[in-house]
Amino acid sequence: MAKKEAQNLSSKSVLAAIYYLEQDEVPAAEHEKTKNQLLKTISRKNIAIFDDKNKRFTGDMPVDANISYRFMEEIRHKQSADFSDDSYFYHGLYYEDNQGNFIVITREPKDAFNEQLLSLLKILLVVSLLGIGLIYLFSQYLGKIAYDPVNRIIQQIKARDEESFYQPLKPEKSYEEIHDLIATYNHFIDRIGQHSQIQKNFIDYVSHELRTPITAMLGSMEVTAQQERSPAEYQATLRNLKQYSQDLHETLDQMMILSGAQDRFEFQSIRLDEIIWQLVEDAILYHQASINVDIQVEDTALLEIQGNQKLLSLAIHNLLSNAIKYSNNKPLAIVLGQQDGQLYLEVADQGIGILDEDLQHITDNFYRGQNTQAFQGKGIGLSMANIIFNIHAIQMEIIANLPKGTRIQLTFPRF
Hints:
Elements: H1 3-21, H2 28-41, E1 47-50, E2 56-58, H3 69-78, E3 80-84, E4 88-97, E5 100-109, H4 110-158, H5 176-209, H6 211-225, H7 231-259, E6 268-271, H8 272-287, E7 291-296, E8 304-307, H9 309-326, E9 332-339, E10 342-348, H10 356-359, H11 381-391, E11 395-400, E12 406-411
Parallel strand pairs: 7-9
Antiparallel strand pairs: 1-2, 1-5, 3-4, 4-5, 6-8, 9-10, 10-12, 11-12
Helix pairs in contact: 1-2, 5-7, 6-7, 8-9, 9-11
């Protein structure tokens, strides 16, 4: 039985008891008032009052088989009781009066209650449908807002062509996950671009570098084969061929670096100052170079780094060779120092320097500055050094001090 209906019937039972049983104890005016209240709330056909012998005392309710002896005993025991069937809600009240003890039973048809339930069900259904509709529209709106950054990323990617494929995506105002996605994509594209550049380096270097020694070898052999030569001439030709072969061997070694075929180099603990002193000694021996070395490292532990000694020697050798060549063997200055707990190496010359318009291309393969026509070179020394430094996570900064020369500073990572 619904709680609300039970409460309503309970109050109606009290009102019925007062009307039927207290008539002799209240003034007529008050009794009339009680009668009016009773008639407004319940029909007399739904009221029955029984005495202590379960005999009808008053009330206009027809005989109702649902009102049983057990129900009336329950009322007497509990002071009040409720039950319901398919048609009515019933409430019984035990009422003590000066005339005796009575049981007041009231009932309420379920039609009104069922109509209320139906109305509530309709309201709930309408509200639910409206709520689902609003939730759907709101979710579509939120989905559009959430998907819009992804859609903009897709549009940026679709707009890519061969020239712009490796350009990073531009992050826009969005939520953190989209920024992470853009950063991951940019990192992925950067790695692809690096590998693509490595492949291009390989092709460029092969076509540029192998052609000259192979042509020279073929030319030497063709000229030698045209007529009989003296033993001395054959020996000279063999020496030339040997030199060309050595050049090819050295070229192939360098190709392996530029092409990235060896992108997993063995790193070990090495002393940078030992590499510098060996390179300086070789430069003095072979080029009669004048080099001043200034070591300003207080924490000598910084001089021990992780790297590939052969590669680092080759890269720093290229820097020294350029400094010697483009300064016409003027004195060089090498500073090995530390700053903010990091090791740095600085190579400064007094040469021709680098033009501002050449700085952004100076590490490109086979690129030579506009002021280097008077010097022999292939334009690969600095590009190779740059690749090696990138492999070691070494930052290279080139500072052109025209017309006093060039200063290159290498900053080593913390180990």
